[in-house]
Structure formats: structure tokens, C-alpha cells
């Protein structure tokens, strides 16, 4: 209620002594006190009623009013019963601090004032509650009737004054309006937050809420402009989660069709049936496409979400949920049409998009390894099986590198052989060939291993190797001769060069 409402009550006969300029002050409640400093009992916005029992001298008024002003009270009501009037020093102190001062006649009890204020505040709160319930019903009804996120956010802004958007973990805007660079920064804040909700400053204050219980790498963040009440944020996040669940239900059919297509292709299905199933998945057999394999797991973790399932969820988010991923034994597989309006018209554009967005997740969740392999551009249903194998090899190479995106072009090198060889075998191979060189270098500081690497990189050129190492060519000849003696290999032999080259890369 407002101060003017209190003054307009004829039965109270209150007289305003100071504060004519602030009749619209809001009163939240009443405190009756005669303590000289009642600040510990005040939270702000109260009407303080006092019988002036604390006043022993004129100086007491200044101290009393200063304490109430600091506590943020709305007004002071002084009773006439003790002194027969309101002392001038109290009036002066209230005027100095800008506090409204009301004179309460002797015949009006503080209880009557308290009852009046209590009834009016309760009525205002009831009206606010009815309004809030009405707004809540309208929002829930809109969600139940199938309103999309755009309609939901427009309604929330109108009813609650809250401007909101939804951002995926990789920084794409799912709904609402945010600049791309700001969305990416907010996605990183969402991923890195110890707990949610969290308030961040990114060109303005934003409150971030988790939309559902999905892993953050595949989750959505509700972004509300400003500092938003937690209850409002949680309810809005629940509405967004409901819409996400509704959309996911429709994608289950697409995922089942894709799963049947991949399974049939990998088992050597008939070309005619494969082509028909490819069309059922919305891809023309003459249309180019690529296969994407993905897995995501915490480094060194023995539990947690299934890497293949989480990897598929991440890829779906990286590609704005325009594709569906099929979870396999060790990775998910996604067939991605190479359409210019979605991912670019070639495989390289698709790979670049995946790299850019996966980098956001890697920066926000450094403990999570996301490994993605992308096949070359393919056409025809019969190419699916080879594409799945190629994407799988590329994904394993990405995992061996500690995560990231690898294309099929990169696997047709020695790196594929090393990536698919067990780690203990690689270590044993490198130790057997290079162990004597490392031992010699430790004892003599001869840099045989470094010289061997430079010699092979220079394709066996003595002069080029000497220039790279900034040493005399005879020094290179001497060191290479020592390498041959210690390893038992002949560096004029291509086979021995290959063995030593692989040992350097495997170590």
C-alpha cells in the first residue's frame, strides 16, 4: 500500500508533518517500537510507530531518525500520548533525512493503525498473487497447447517482463535473439559454471539456467537478461525442457529409420533396398552426403554416460539438430546430407563447422574428450558401408590425438597405422629401436635422436640436415653412423628408414 492510502483513511485522523513530496512511498508493514535503535528488527519499507519513550533529550531525535533512515523505513508515526505533541526536534530530524513523519492522535491506538495497514497490504498481496497465478496459467496453457519457443518467449516477455533466449552448449542460438559472439561466450559460461543458475556479465547481466538434466556437452542453457528470480527461471526452464522433449519425441522415428539404414548397409544389404531406405531417410541416392562418427568421454573415466550415445547427442547439437545420430558399440554414426543451405556444399565445409563448434565445448569442458571423424563426400546407398568404416578410422585417429575432428583425407597415412595400434605395442616398438639412442644421448649429450629426426625429415640430405641443425656436415655424418651402429639399421635402406621414422612417431 502507499502512504497516501494511509493518510486518506478518515478513521485514523493521521496528520502528515513532513514528507508532503513523497505521498507515493510504499509501505510493506508496521513495526511498533520504543527502542532508541531498532535497526536489527527492520528490513526496509516499514511504517515505524513509536510512543517516544526513547526520547530523553532533543539530541535523541537525530540519532533515532538517522538509524531508521539507514534501515530504509517508509515513514515514522509518532504518538501524542507521552508528550502531548510531536517535538520540534523530531520534526526537524525527519525533514533533514527526508522521512515522512505522521502525528498519531491520542485517541487512535497503534493497534488500529497496524490493523489498517495489515488489511491493505494483504489485499495488495492477494491481488499480486491472483495476477501471478493468472500469468502462470496463461504461460502453462500456451505450452500445453503446443506453443513453440518463439511464442513462449514472446508471452513471457509480455506477462513477466523477462527477455529470454536458449543457447546450445556449442553456442548456437536455439530460440530468442542473441548476437553470435555473445551466444558463444554465454555457452562457455554455461559449460564452465560450477553450479547453475549463475549470473554473468557479458555486455550486460544475464542469468543462466540449465534447461534439463542432459549432459552439459549436449545441453541447453536458458539465458535470461538481467538478474531473474530463481523460481521464474526454473519454471521457464521447465517449459523449455517440455518443448525439447516434445521435439525429441518426433525425432525418435527419424533415428529408428537411420539406425535400420546403417545396420542394413553395414551387413551388406541389397542395393535396391538400401536406396529405398536412403530415400525414406530424406536423402536422394544421387545426393552427396558424408558419414560422421563421434564419441565423447571424460579422460580417464571408468563410469559416466555412454561415449557413443553422448557423442551422437553432441554431433546433433553441433549440427543444430538437423540430423539424427545412431549409437553404435564404440561410437555414434550420423549420415549428413551435403546441402548448401545447411552445412555447406562439401565435406570440408562440414568438417570446419564441426571443428569450430566442438572447440567451444572443448574450451568449456576441458576434461571431456570429443572425438569426431568425417568421411569423404559420397553418393549412392552402396557407399554407406565404406563411409562408416572411413569415419570410424578417422574418429579413432582423433581420439589418439586427444580429441578434435579428423577427416578421411588424414587417415591415409602412417598416422592411421599408429592410431589403430595398441599403445603398449607402439611404446615397445619405439623403445626397442630408439632405446639405445636415448641412452647414448643421456650419457654423452650427443643429440642422436634429434639428428635422426632431422635427417629423415630432410629425406636423407646431409647438407640440408646440417643446415637445419646448424652443425658441420661431417658432424651429421658422424652422428648418423653412430645411429646405425647402435640400432643395427642401415639408413641407406628405405625399409630401415621407414622403421626408424615410425618409431620416432610412435614414441
TrEMBL record:
All residue ranges annotated as the Purine catabolism PurC-like domain in the record: 5-118
InterPro entries xrefs: CdaR-like_regulators, CdaR_GGDEF, PucR_C-HTH_dom, PucR_C-HTH_sf, PucR_dom
A Pfam family the protein falls into: HTH_30
Sequence ranges assigned to domain PucR C-terminal helix-turn-helix in this UniProt record: 448-506
Residue intervals of the CdaR GGDEF-like domain: 269-396
The family this protein is said to belong to: Belongs to the CdaR family.
Protein name: PucR family transcriptional regulator
Gene source species: Microbispora triticiradicis
Lineage, highest ranks first: Bacteria, Bacillati, Actinomycetota, Actinomycetes, Streptosporangiales
Amino acid at each position: 500500500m502507499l502512504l497516501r492510502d494511509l493518510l486518506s483513511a478518515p478513521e485514523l485522523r493521521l496528520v502528515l508533518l513532513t514528507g508532503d513530496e513523497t505521498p507515493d512511498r510504499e509501505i510493506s508493514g508496521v513495526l511498533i517500537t520504543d527502542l532508541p535503535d531498532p535497526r536489527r528488527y527492520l528490513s526496509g519499507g516499514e511504517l515505524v510507530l513509536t510512543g517516544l519513550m526513547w526520547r530523553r533529550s532533543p539530541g535523541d531525535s537525530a540519532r533515532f531518525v538517522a538509524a531508521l533512515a539507514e534501515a530504509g523505513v517508509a515513514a515514522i508515526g509518532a504518538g501524542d500520548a507521552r508528550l502531548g505533541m510531536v517535538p520540534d526536534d523530531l520534526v526537524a530530524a525527519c525533514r533533514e533525512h527526508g522521512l515522512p513523519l505522521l502525528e498519531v492522535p491520542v485517541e487512535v491506538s497503534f493497534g488500529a493503525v497496524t490493523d489498517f495497514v495489515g488489511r491493505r497490504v494483504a489485499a495488495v498481496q492477494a491481488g499480486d498473487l491472483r495476477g501471478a497465478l493468472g500469468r502462470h496459467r496463461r504461460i502453462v496453457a500456451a505450452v500445453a497447447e503446443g506453443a513453440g519457443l518463439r511464442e513462449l518467449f514472446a508471452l513471457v516477455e509480455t506477462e513477466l517482463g523477462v527477455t529470454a533466449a536458449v543457447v546450445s552448449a556449442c553456442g548456437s542460438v536455439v530460440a530468442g535473439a542473441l548476437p553470435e559472439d555473445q551466444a558463444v561466450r554465454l555457452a562457455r559460461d554455461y559449460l564452465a559454471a560450477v553450479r547453475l543458475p549463475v549470473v554473468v556479465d557479458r555486455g550486460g547481466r544475464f542469468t543462466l539456467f540449465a534447461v534439463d538434466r542432459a549432459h552439459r556437452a549436449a545441453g541447453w542453457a536458458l539465458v535470461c537478461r538481467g538478474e531473474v528470480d530463481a523460481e521464474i527461471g526454473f519454471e521457464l526452464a521447465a517449459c523449455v525442457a517440455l518443448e525439447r522433449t516434445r521435439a525429441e519425441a518426433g525425432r525418435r522415428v527419424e533415428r529408428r529409420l537411420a539406425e535400420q539404414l546403417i545396420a542394413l548397409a553395414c551387413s551388406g544389404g541389397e542395393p535396391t533396398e538400401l536406396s529405398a531406405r536412403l530415400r525414406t531417410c530424406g536423402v536422394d541416392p544421387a545426393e552427396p552426403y558424408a558419414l560422421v562418427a563421434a564419441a565423447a568421454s571424460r579422460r580417464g573415466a571408468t563410469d559416466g554416460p555412454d561415449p557413443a550415445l553422448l557423442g551422437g547427442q553432441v554431433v546433433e547439437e553441433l549440427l543444430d539438430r538437423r540430423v539424427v545420430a545412431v549409437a553404435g558399440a564404440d561410437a555414434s554414426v550420423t549420415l549428413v546430407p551435403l546441402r548448401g543451405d545447411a552445412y555447406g556444399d562439401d565435406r570440408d565445409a562440414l568438417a570446419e563447422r564441426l571443428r569450430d563448434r566442438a572447440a567451444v565445448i572443448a574450451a568449456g569442458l576441458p576434461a571431456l574428450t570429443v572425438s569426431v571423424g568425417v568421411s569423404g563426400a559420397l553418393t549412392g546407398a552402396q557407399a554407406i558401408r565404406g563411409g562408416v568404416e572411413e569415419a570410424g578410422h578417422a574418429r579413432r585417429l582423433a581420439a589418439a590425438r586427444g580429441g578434435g575432428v579428423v577427416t578421411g583425407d588424414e587417415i591415409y597415412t602412417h598416422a592411421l597405422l599408429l592410431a589403430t595400434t595398441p599403445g603398449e605395442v607402439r611404446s615397445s616398438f619405439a623403445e626397442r629401436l630408439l632405446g639405445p639412442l636415448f641412452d647414448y644421448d643421456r650419457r654423452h649429450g650427443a643429440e642422436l635422436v634429434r639428428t635422426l629426426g632431422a635427417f629423415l625429415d630432410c629425406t636423407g640430405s646431409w647438407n640440408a640436415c646440417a643446415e637445419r641443425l646448424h652443425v658441420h656436415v661431417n658432424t651429421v655424418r658422424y652422428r648418423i653412423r653412430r645411429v646405425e651402429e647402435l640400432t643395427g639399421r642401415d639408413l641407406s635402406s628405405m625399409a630401415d628408414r621407414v622403421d626408424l621414422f615410425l618409431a620416432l612417431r610412435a614414441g
